[in-house]
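Narrative of activities, Objective 1.

The group set out to show that a structural description can be obtained from nothing but a protein's sequence at a throughput compatible with the screening campaign. Below is one input-output pair from the validation batch, recorded exactly as produced.
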Amino acid sequence: MSEVESNLNSQHKISSHTTESFAWQKSELTALPKNPTCLPQIEKKLIDSSETYKYLIIGGGPAGLQLAYFLNKAGQNYVLLEAGERAGSFFETFPRHKKLISINKVYTGYKEREARLRSDWHSLLCDDNEMFFGQYSRRYFPKAEDYVKYLQDYAEYFELNIHYGARVNNISKTENFTVKTESGKTYFCEYLIVATGVSLPYIPNIPGIELTENYFDCSINPDDYINQRVLILGKGNSSFETANHLSETARAIHVCSPNSVKLAWNTHYVGHLRAVNNEFLDTYQLKGQNAILDAYIQKIEHKNGEFVVHLTFSHAQGQKAILLYDRVIVCTGFRFDDSIFETTCQP
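Output recorded for this entry:
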């Protein structure tokens, strides 16, 4: 699909929550020396204003915390840099409407932790059976705020070495990595792990797209859309999440992208549109003034207080149309931020 929506789902879950999936990590980490000796000598004046580690992790979300846990357990020399003031800060903003689409089935009939993790997409691996997400919420689709609390407690409980408020703005590499933060601090490391996920909005190349609003910062107050005509670009979970939220107040909502909707229950891919977000489909099928358009947006203009949207339908022999809207919201997913990497180490 054109959207990068699968990343909203992957944010909520480590791909495999089984002890076996991390066995290789634990054995490899245990075998590594605890005190790195292979870092080159650095001038003392640099060491005084910087820190040197064998492992440096960027990102304090589920992936970064999980790796930090195993490095910590193995007694390795590591640090985790988190741009926010607490672990899991991404989930303080996303999803915008605060309901996760990852499964949290607490009552499975199983007592074994490994078996329970098959239906628990939130808990991180650890040796403490009490540190699981089911202690924080029993909702099948939990609130994002509950996951933030769990991730914060996980980081504190295991005393992970995390530097908060450390937003990285430059990464370079000679023999080893040099990592700089916005606050002016410099770190050196032998191994660098970027665990940030995808954090920037994906903006399609459409003339006039700069006139629109974005899922990242549009209003989530339904009253701001009373009796308005709203066009939502994208057909992934963020677009339908937004459409559902506005259905009660907006006059009409059109959800548009060149390709047809891909339903997770049909494709068996959890990143496609989930049932928890597809209530909007009813309002379309039952002719509730809403529509799903398979069309290419040619350009967007703003004239006399209205958005003038020129589009070409995907399945109508190139038929064109010009439609008017009060709001246009871009919900086309996320992309990776590679701007922090110098040419010496671009991924």
